[in-house]
Amino acid sequence: MSFPKNFLWGGATAANQCEGAWNVDGKGPSISDHNRAGSRTSGTRRTFDLEIDDQYYYPSHTAIDSYHRYKEDIALFAEMGFKVYRLSIAWTRIFPNGDETTPNEAGLQYYDDLFDELHKYGIEPLVTISHFELPFHLGKEYDGFLDKRTIGFYERYATTLFERYKDKVKYWLTFNEINFGTLDHGRRINGLFNREYTESEQYQALHNVFLASAKAVIAGHKINPDFQIGCMLAYITMYPKTCRPADVLKTQQMNDRLNYFCGDVQVKGAYPYYMKRYFEQNDIQVEITEEDKALLKAGTVDYYTFSYYMSTCIADNLEDRDDKSGGNLFGGVSNEYLETSDWGWQIDPIGLRYTLNQIYSRYEVPLMVVENGLGAFDKVEEDGSIKDDYRIDYFKQHIIEMGNAIDDGVDLIGYTPWGCIDLISAGTGEMSKRYGFIYVDRDDEGNGTLDRSRKDSFYWYKDVIASNGEKL
Ligand code: BG6
């Protein structure tokens, strides 16, 4: 098994899940700042409040306070030997409402300092421009990306980042998990929360997100031709529940629409043929002009990245089944050959090799796995240690399969496990759903010292990186 010499080992986070300091130094509220905590284990969903109400706990407001502790965190990443660190920039630190014409200097300076700190240790930043952090104001006043003006606001924001950090950041991602844009929680990408929206409106907003991404790619390449600007999708690997042709066909249709569609637009630069049929059958109207088509063609991405946590099964009668499985915003039916995490996500390392081959054979551009990991309960022992062998085992199996995919011929250039430091869950707002190599002392209600400590997986991952994936 052979990882290339310059393979980018690292970890990933997002501003709204780790920074905290939600209203500090001029930052405005993002959509995520309006999300209360829920609990997936007890079945309560997160509540989205139009008005922030002080009697409730909003996890993103303090999160793990990395806004103030980033130096300590980066030193720990460096100790593990990270080559790359994926983070997102909070849009509302740069443009607090989203529609200003002048950026907030304090916000820009914060990320300048953070990038300098990374470079001090030779860690390459990988920046997600929009990771569930759309300014709340853009949703409230403009209906987010349903309004074409938001494309311009995003372009201004992205261009501001490209110009400011053109010598500090090379790797960019335009939108996190863009393919969730029309599903539950899509509001954090497209800003649709004022009312119920038709499917046509949801797809129109997603179309405008595609245009914004394409504009950013074009602008970024003009500012620095060396920029690598990628797309990012949530890949939910789907298998037919049985070999019944109807199950296989349904799997293909769902896979096309949920996994392939956005990548086809962003990598190939055009709407795929199968969406035309879906739009017709569901009476969905999306306005796509000739100018839009040219823009999508000109603004294709340089590389493809995705999150991979699990796989699921699809059956023809999916909606009526009572053997549904849990999932990362979307779950199908259960697979009796797989174990599940504490949150019901089906663990499938071989599925990662299969997925890497599926994606690479379709696009033949460099790939990066920018999220992968096990959300689990951790126990702190009396001596302060955290024996997370279940997490080590999860990573070990997935890394073996990434190595196999590389041997298959897939051009995989990097790996940034999710939540390399414990942070708040996007799905539930819980802290107890921990992903990190680094433990953070904080609970689901916001109590704790916020102190950091190394889990057993920390030392293990350090060895993995030092041996370039040989010592597992
Ligand atoms: C992805 C997101 O959906 O999965 C992350 O990009 C998120 O923001 C991660 O945290 C894991 O999901 P969760 O719900 O366990 O936090």
UniProtKB/TrEMBL annotation:
Keywords: Glycosidase, Hydrolase. Transmembrane segments: none annotated. InterPro entries: GH, GH_1_N_CS, Glyco_hydro_1. It holds the Pfam family Glyco_hydro_1. It comes from the Bacteria. NCBIfam families: PRK09589.1, PRK09593.1. Belongs to the glycosyl hydrolase 1 family. This is 6-phospho-beta-glucosidase. The lineage of its organism: Bacteria, Bacillati, Bacillota, Bacilli, Lactobacillales.
